[in-house]
C-alpha cells in the first residue's frame, strides 16, 4: 500500500510560509530547496515532508491543468516497488508527466542531497491533481512506506 509522505505548497514568500508552519504547528526544517525549478524549504513532522516552494519555472508550477503558483500543489506517495506502483496507477487512469530534461539532469547530479532526487515519477490523476511516487522517500520522513 502506498503511504502519504509528501505534500507541496506553492507560495510567493517561502520564508514567511515556512516560519508560520514551524512556529504555528511545530514542524521542523529538514532541508532547503534550491533547484532550477523552485526555491524554498522542506519541513517535517517526522512522518510527512512538506515542501514550501516558490516556483522558478512556469512548467514546474503546472497542476490541475494550468500553472498554480500558490496554494496546495501536489501530494507524494511512498511505495515499495516503483514498477508495480507505476503500472497500477497507469492502469487506473493516471497520466505520467513528461518534464523537461533540466529536472532529470538536476536529480542525477544531486541524488543524495536534499533538494534533488526525491521525486522519481510524477503523474496526473483523473481530477487533474499532480502526485509523485518515490521508493526513496523525502527528507524528514520515516522510510518511504514504513
Provide a brief overview of the structure.
Helix content is 21%, strand content 36%.
Oligomer type: single chain
Q: Can you tell me the overall shape?
A: globular
- Order of strands, main sheet, comes to 2-3-4-1-7-10-9-8
Structural class comes to: alpha+beta
* Count of DSSP strands: 10
Helix tally equals 3
Helix content: 10-25%
Q: What about the largest sheet? A: 8 strands, mixed
Structure notes:
There is one protein chain. The chain has 146 residues and is of the alpha+beta class. It is 21% helix and 36% strand. It has three helices and ten strands, in the order βαββββββαβαββ. The protein has helices at residues 14-25, 82-91, 101-109, and strands spanning 3-10, 28-34, 38-44, 49-55, 62-63, 66-67, 71-78, 95-96, 121-124, 130-134. An eight-stranded mixed beta sheet has the order 2-3-4-1-7-10-9-8, with helices on one face. Strands 5-6 form a two-stranded antiparallel ribbon. Strand 9 (121-124) and strand 10 (130-134) form a beta hairpin. The longest helix has 12 residues, at 14-25. The model is unreliable at 109-117 (pLDDT under 50).
Amino acid at each position: 500500500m502506498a503511504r502519504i509522505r509528501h505534500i507541496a505548497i506553492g507560495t510567493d514568500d517561502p520564508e514567511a510560509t515556512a516560519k508560520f508552519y514551524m512556529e504555528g504547528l511545530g514542524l521542523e526544517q529538514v532541508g532547503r530547496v534550491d533547484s532550477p525549478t523552485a526555491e524554498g524549504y522542506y519541513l517535517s513532522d517526522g512522518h510527512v515532508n512538506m515542501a514550501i516552494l516558490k516556483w522558478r519555472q512556469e512548467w514546474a508550477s503546472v497542476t490541475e491543468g494550468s500553472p498554480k503558483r500558490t496554494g496546495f500543489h501536489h501530494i507524494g506517495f511512498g511505495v515499495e516497488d516503483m514498477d508495480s506502483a507505476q503500472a497500477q496507477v497507469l492502469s487506473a487512469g493516471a497520466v505520467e508527466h513528461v518534464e523537461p530534461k533540466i529536472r532529470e539532469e538536476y536529480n542525477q547530479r544531486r541524488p543524495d542531497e536534499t533538494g534533488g532526487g526525491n521525486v522519481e515519477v510524477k503523474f496526473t490523476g483523473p481530477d487533474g491533481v499532480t502526485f509523485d511516487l518515490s521508493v526513496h522517500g523525502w527528507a524528514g520522513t520515516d522510510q518511504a512506506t514504513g
